[in-house]
Amino acid sequence: MADTTLSLGKTNLDFFAQTLIELAENDRDILICTSDSRGSGRVTPFAEKFPQQIVEIGIAEQNLVGVSAGLSSMGKKVFTISPACFLTARSLEQIKNDVAYSDHPVKIIGISAGVSYGALGTTHHSLHDFAVMQAINNIDIVAPADNFETQKVIQAAINHPRPLYIRFGKKAMPHLHNVETYFEIGKAIQLTPNQDSYDVVFIAIGETVAPAFLASQDLVSEGLKCCVLSVHSLRPFDELAVRQAVEKSKVVITVEEHSINGGLGSRVASFLMQAGINRPFKIVGIPDEHTVTGSQGEIFKHYGISPQGLAKTATQLLEQR
């Protein structure tokens, strides 16, 4: 196995809060609305610096989204912060009607997403948010992989013309990009060198991009050719980048911290099937079962979302061709 390491940065949430403070220095229309989440959302420093630009709604997620939509309708640039598991379940009707249907460009920030809450269990896991958000018209969906993607999506979100859902986990993330990397909402980023063909293509989103990249490095050390796509945007979805990578591949693996139903894997599979592109294909995520209890790392390892698990899945898929 390759001795591959990645330098560690901050949590994406910390970088989100830092970027928002920098932007708010010159933009008094930026507002944060929270549901008792300023601490867990890392925005206490923002509140201390801009006390007139934060609205505390309390633990009332439906009101949170309704108030955010109203403020957005008056021209404010609203960032709505709450745990993803509650924000996209309790207030789904308000997201659908007050934000998306009413076309208010609220930035809905789902924090501690996926299995970030670890041993708190299924009540606090958000494994449904990609699915429900993709089923709602007129809301874009982004899950940054590292601090770079986080900074760029927040900078782009300020003047993004549509409603936007941004998903964050809790742990410190490794640096995957250099500062010269081009970022655009809706455009996937290839982390590996472009080649004429690949043995394995990993298509990953959010905090699962790092283990997919490390798995690819292990496989490269064994003589395989790999491609890793960071598909940070589920909507708009970069069909061109996915097509170009998959058409040069032997096998395709999607990776996500979400149910295997209705997330990135389902989106990629639907696109490939309708485009007539056929490759051995595997969705790696949380299966349709009661999720095991443990830390995020333990849950990832159990379901094969670790570098070792993904490398093993790739090897098995190649052997089954």
Please render the helix and strand layout as text.
Elements: E1 8-11, H1 12-24, E2 30-34, H2 44-49, E3 54-56, H3 61-73, E4 77-83, H4 84-87, H5 92-101, E5 107-111, H6 129-134, E6 140-142, H7 147-157, E7 164-167, E8 172-174, E9 189-190, E10 198-204, H8 209-221, E11 226-230, E12 233-235, H9 239-246, E13 249-259, H10 264-275, E14 281-286, H11 296-302, H12 307-319
Parallel strand pairs: 2-3, 2-4, 4-5, 5-7, 6-7, 10-11, 10-13, 13-14
Antiparallel strand pairs: 1-8, 6-12, 9-11
Helix pairs in contact: 1-7, 3-5, 8-12
Describe the structure.
Helices cover 36% and strands 21% of the residues. It has 321 residues and is an alpha/beta fold. The chain folds into two domains: 9-174, Rossmann fold, CATH 3.40.50.970; 189-319, Rossmann fold, CATH 3.40.50. α8 (209-221) links the parallel β10 (198-204) and β11. α1 (12-24) runs parallel beside α7, α3 runs parallel beside α5 and α8 (209-221) packs across α12 (307-319). The model has no long low-confidence stretch (mean pLDDT 95).
Can you tag this structure with a few keywords?
321 residues; Rossmann fold; 2 domains; 14 strands; seven-stranded mixed β-sheet; globular; five-stranded mixed β-sheet; alpha/beta
